[in-house]
């Protein structure tokens, strides 16, 4: 997902000494039998080796928890190995306000990991001849044009939409579908037509836009919502019965919320609704379902015959287009149908990661070693934890000699996550402590037009922007911060002749409606 507000890190900031954490990790790596904690009932171990890995994880995570002031670590994970579920574990809370702990029933939002699911659907519909990967936008949306004449629908293929090589930019469509909540397919098509611009070239350029456009094509061709098509052609065949692109169809009791402490107290938030669950980042699922999904790919389709062939799976997970960047410990070199290809610690890794301000989703597998890992977490400031745990699992199973040094490297990322979130919390706290009273003249409805929709501010500074609900904290009589809890946005007032006429939130302008 896109980050709407990014705060600068201060390298000198240190809430908890990193050396303490590194010492703890070394102890965990060398003394896996020191754990005395009782296992959660839903933990599962296949054999003695998986039990040993579980014990080692218990030590590692309990000590990291202690080093961060005793704060609960919240995550759920699973491992498949050699054709079987090898390990499943749950830690902490899916929703601490209702005291609902992570369990095998937990349905968690997986953000951009959804791109893999959409890519797999594209492979399936191509196999069936319904929507060909080599087909173009013009083939499936005949007559649809863009106002920017540099965008050519007859040259943009379905494959390019899924692999981020379509050469189109439209941040507004992304914001509507991911945050505000799109109103209708007609609204989305109008926005694509008028607000899209051509990129300089069609090289790999990661964004939500390609899968979103693809979902419109799916609806057009099959005559039903893309969410139902996903269920018919992917989730039901693979037995992923707890995976859905509809928030309204999930079990409210078991949805994992984002855990936030930005205003000085623990609170939970889940601001997703059906209309902001896009094909680029819009699914709720369980670890058990994602393990089935990984097993399908690791087995080259043999776990559920007839959905995709071995060759089709190889294509979907191959480096269809090149990329070159490093993320966490992964040297990325390619991108397929929603899957990224990278090298991790000398091994080829196929992965799809996702994040949404507190939500962190890690889904990956090593084909040659027949190992797959799912780690999902939900606490702001601890987003790197999911990847640290996944890396530790791979290095432990493969008996890598350098797993200690990689754990230290990953802890640096975790520390930076924590520091960044702490700095953001500090900024909000400073705004709260200023205690600048809300100017009632700021209350009202503001129109951001086609670009941004409507924002409302009440007399108490409560802000509503589509699906996002937040609190305005003033820094001066004309500037402040809007804390939506899953994101922080700037705020400033526009006046003419000393009269309020509108407000800015980051780069978006909203006109006050009289």
TrEMBL record:
InterPro entries on file: AmpC-like, Beta-lactam-related, Beta-lactam/transpept-like
Gene3D superfamilies, per the entry: DD-peptidase/beta-lactamase superfamily (3.40.710.10)
Keyword Signal: yes
Beta-lactamase-related domain: residues covered: 75-383
UniProtKB keywords: Signal
Signal peptide limits: 1-27
PANTHER family, alphabetized: BETA-LACTAMASE-RELATED DOMAIN-CONTAINING PROTEIN, D-ALANYL-D-ALANINE-CARBOXYPEPTIDASE/ENDOPEPTIDASE AMPH
Name this polypeptide is given: CubicO group peptidase, beta-lactamase class C family
Organism whose genome encodes this protein: Pedobacter steynii
Lineage of origin: Bacteria, Pseudomonadati, Bacteroidota, Sphingobacteriia, Sphingobacteriales
